[in-house]
Amino acid sequence: MFEPRTIYAKIAYDALLLYMKTGKKIFKEEAEVPSALKLKLPCFVSIHSNGKLRGNKGSVEPQHNCLYNEIIENAASAVDEAGKTEPLKEGELHNITLAVDVLSNPKPVENKSLLKPEKHGVIVEDESGNKAYVLPNTEGIDSIEKQMEVAREKAGIDAKVPQDKLKVLNFTMTRYQ
User: Fold this and answer.
1) What are the residue boundaries of the structural domains of the chain, listed by start?
2) pTM for this structure?
3) pLDDT for the residue 2
4) Which residues of 59-84 are buried (b: 16+ CB within 10 A; e: fewer)?
5) Average pLDDT, integer, range 17-42
6) Level-2 CATH architecture, domain 107-176
7) Distance, CA of 111 to CA of 117 (rounded, Å)
8) What does R_g of the chain's alpha carbons equal in angstroms?
9) CATH of domain 7-103
């Protein structure tokens, strides 16, 4: 049985259980949320079962008023994501692990040479609003140039568009299990 080691993972696990049993998400009013979870930050929730990724949901921009509700939303959505291949079953719950990855607020890149793809994620946006992101420590990406290339590709931004015509932001990510 999964034993959460952090409050973040406990919130995600409880939300996952509730959603699997009832199909409901129960959000809290800001006054009910512990102060550390009132921050308006984005996150991702990933579910692994028997070592395989079963669901992963989140965003690089917060969708809710606080991190607590962001975790609830993404945990329930990760359950739905798991259903795209084969629905997550109650019997699998004793073999799952959960991770909540909390992202920092994105900030403009001032010096690309200071970025490290194992530590920093990037968001790339062109003048037309085409935008995509690449998370830090993404498998197969070992340079900031490759990370930028992948983000541009995901956003559909032509490789010929000069770097100075792009808005580039970076963020970090902290994992809680």
Assistant:
1) 7-103, 107-176
2) 0.90
3) 84
4) ebebebebbbbbbbbbbbbbbebbee
5) 95
6) 2-Layer Sandwich (3.30)
7) 14
8) 17
9) 3.30.700.20
- The angle subtended at Cα 80 by Cα 50 and Cα 85, nearest 5°, is 55
Q: Which residues contact 48 (CB under 8 A, 6 or more apart)?
A: 54, 96, 97, 98, 99
* Burial (Cβ within 10 Å: 0-12, 13-18, ≥19) of residue 51: exposed
Q: HEC profile for 114-163?
A: HCCCCCCEEEEECCCCCEEEECCCCCCCCCHHHHHHHHHHHHCCCCCCCH
Given a contact cutoff of 8 angstroms between Cβ atoms, the answer to whether 121 and 137 are in contact is no
